[in-house]
Amino acid sequence: MVQPVNLDQFLAQQVESEHSQALTSMLGDIAFACKRIATAINTGAITGNMGSLASENIQGEVQKALDIITNDIFVEANQTSGYVAAMASEEIDDIIEVAEKYRQKGNYLLVFDPLDGSSNVNVNISVGTIFSVLKSANSHPVLADFLQTGTAQICAGYALYGTSTMLVFTTGKGVNGFTLDAEAGEFYLTHANMQIAADTQEFAVNMSNYRFWQEPVQRYVDECLLGADGEREKDFNMRWVASMVAEVHRILVRGGVFMYPLDTKLPAKAGKLRLMYEANPMSFIVEQAGGASSSGIQRILDIQPTGLHQRVPVMMGSRNEVERLIAYHQLDADNQSF
Ligand code: AHG
Ligand code: MN
Ligand code: MN
Hints:
By secondary structure, the protein is α+β, with helices and mostly antiparallel strands. It has 9 helices and 15 strands.
């Protein structure tokens, strides 16, 4: 049997770049955090941490005990490398400053969703952690230093706590997936150079929001539902896990399109998913795997953020399906201009 490559060996083999030392150190800390998070989730029912708290986060969502526990694990594991100058989390209103003594080696920013899909955590369905690495122009970063487009990301990835724990990331040179051997405490490269098929017959969307969507998304989904009897001339399958990480991982493995479009259910929110720690890192990964990602009217990675917690409509995955969705939005805009 060929000896599998572990995460440290993989990182040591990467081509030298201006960020490689920093990324090797930071990805080691992120991997450590994800191992600890996997344990916290796996044992949550035993330690009595599966419930909700009385608190809400800045998005007005009731926090679960594990939202906070996983946030704290991620912050603690990543604050002492010397490379991370500040962090931002879904669960914390403002940016998280790193102590001066730990800011000696670099000005990197780490933005993360510590527990994605937290509504699934107490029903034993897959959840994840999403992260994005940016570089700050400033050695003492302030909020404005975080507000960079997704194209500025140096690294993005996720951990999936599913039937196995996986770490999947990109540093802009393709996408690689590692599986945790929990006994050895090591991540091993199991999914090298992940690629998303350009075509698919599978879509993922929360259908209960159908009546709140805009016409282009309704049209796209209507055509999928008509299947072989409609203009697509092929049947489609549907999945909805309600954990973006699990959804995107499935798409990386077997293709598909994932949507959380704009809806009028909560008009104050421009979609549900957050640009900086959900849409941007996942878009970077999807594009690096040959897929596409759009809000319907703009490439997600080109959107200029105006706030840490801003939301954005998301449609990502198999390139030809995302391009079809973009075309339907374009047609709609053209019709509206007459
Ligand atoms: P989070 O648990 O970090 O708030 O994210 C949940 C997100 C995402 O993972 C998922 O795609 C979506 O919310 C599910 O939303 P619905 O419950 O509306 O289906
Ligand atoms: Mn999330
Ligand atoms: Mn979350």
